[in-house]
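Researcher: Hi, I'm a grad student and pretty new to this. My advisor asked me to get structures for two proteins we've been looking at. I'm not sure of the right format, so I'll just paste the first sequence and hope you can take it from there.
Model: That works fine. Here's the first sequence with its structure tokens right after it:
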Amino acid sequence: MNVRRRISAVALAGSAVLGLLAVSACSTSGAAGKEDGKLAVTASFYPMQFLAEKIGGEHVSVTSLTSPGTEPHDLELSPKQTAQLGESDAIVYLKGVQPAVDEAVKQSGVKHTADAASFTTLESHGAEVGGHDHGDEHGHEESHAGHDHGDESGLDPHIWLDPVKYAEAAKGVGKTLAAADPKHEADYEKNTAALVKQLDKLNQDYKDGLKNRKSDTFITTHAAFGYLAERYGLTEEAISGLDPEATDVSGSRVKDLQALARKHDVHTVFFETLTSPDMAKTLAKDVHAKTDVLDPIEGITKKSRGDDYLSVMESNLKALQKALGAK
């Protein structure tokens, strides 16, 4: 994420906080939960919304700060949204994805906040991630160069694309909701266990589905799938780094990818639904490959290959199986 965008996002969040009291009457989403007796939960973007809804069930009213079809990394909070945060009974977010949200949560004064990143371990990822080193073909520093994603630590926040890490986050969210609403603690625990079971099955589906494959390497537009690649012994080669809208891709990186595609028999270059597919299509044309969608599930839209996180992850598995020649 470029510096200008980060500064403007944080600045806007700060001004929104200053206007909190003046606009609190405009916010309806936070108050709605209280009016119908439900826990008012604000989620930062879709993967956090999914956790809150699945774990909270009938006891919560969940509102997402990021509308469907919006690239979450670009979110700039309105004063109304910042007011909504302050009125929440609980907040579920992922530090490092949306700087404006991180700043607003810090200033919200809400007692029960769940930072999904704090429930698991994060790693630094660059344009190449995985268990199969391609360092011989291009410089180590090039493949792991820092690509800022909003988190100043440089850590990769895409934990939701690894079912195991996402399950760890789910457990933490469940405890946060239970602390905010002790009366329904048993239900939150039950719902968390059910979701973790579904994620365990998803993890097994990926293990089994990718077991017998011809290739380990897949190419994406940006490095969202590092944890997934590491989990299943794959190598993700990204055209850019962690920033989904990066356009300053070096010529040497493009040459590296062309060589990698030919050497590792890569027939598919993946793009995603919420950002431009131009870079993927250009590279695919250069190496005579096809393009397909590998969805980082940052939001569900009409273009999504599924109607929720679990179904889109299954679609991603099918796309990977096809691209990697898995039987």
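Researcher: Oh nice, that was easy. Here's the second one.
Model: And its structure:
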Amino acid sequence: MTPVELSRTVLRAVRCAVDEGELSVAVPVRAVVTPPGPGGCGDYATNIALQLARPAGRPPRQVAEILRPHLSRTAGVADVEITGPGFLNIHLEAATATIALVREILDGHANGHAIDSGHDSHDSHESHTTPYGHTPTLTGQVIPLRIPYDIRAEVVADSLVRIVASQGGRAEVHHVRAGEAVTLRPVPAPEDPAPLGADAARWALLHPAAHDRPRITADHLAQRESNPLFRVRYAHARARALTRCAARLGFHGEPGDVPVDVPGAEVLVRELAGYPHALSAAAAQHAPDRLARHLVATADAFLAFQHTVLPLGDEKPSAAHRARLALAEAAGTVLAGGLALLGISAPDYL
């Protein structure tokens, strides 16, 4: 069950409650389903009860109690909890949650490639899903970014234009002169980062939080574990290498159950599920460093998991290997997409 399918499930629960006379409201067109926020739990959460409370003339928590049994009866839903003023926190069956997550990531990537390549037919257009993590949250919003004439501010604003667009909004960059009000002023770099090259220079300016002074050193070029940029790009390259190796062994990735006792799998699934939240937070807080740090965490989780993907010795490829490969490919897709939003390349070979 993907978040889109889960959104439809929430709306069906509202419709059932209305049809059975438990609620007297107009069924909304859309139900927002996101990873749980602070204090939440489960795989996804929705604020639909808070949204319906006023038109229903009931407290949000009472609305949530009405909707809870309708959601709980849905196939693939393991449990539904109510937290805070009335948030519905949905636990999916473990296998269902992982399969849905991997399928959503890979389907968004495949459809995006079909359209970019000019092969979008009428049918594929109708089934098109946006890239994973891209949402319409900021649709219709124009966000002005007033920045000083400074290289770090330029790079941060350039990344934010893409990140905000991924959430449906539009960021407009305006340069201001000394003494004029700014909305974005990261601590300037101590020296020109250009000698590092485009990718390492951007990472050096984007990875630290805006209030931290960036380090402009050759460490950003080192191909070793201590370099976060190298780990992210290496993890992406390894994901692509696993696909090539699997093809030589005669199998391909297929979303399936990846048990939590597979080394690194549980953490990797959690980081992939958190990517949309990292993107929305980066857009809302004007903080591309939130995205950069999430990519590092995703890369580290993948590097712990990668050794479980391919068959060993005389072992034959199985459904378990296909499921693990699909999870690895999903990780590579997220890493490539995140780096692209930061304006950094993701080579298939390192």
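Researcher: Is there anything I should tell my advisor about the second?
Model: You could mention this: The longest helix spans residues 94-116.
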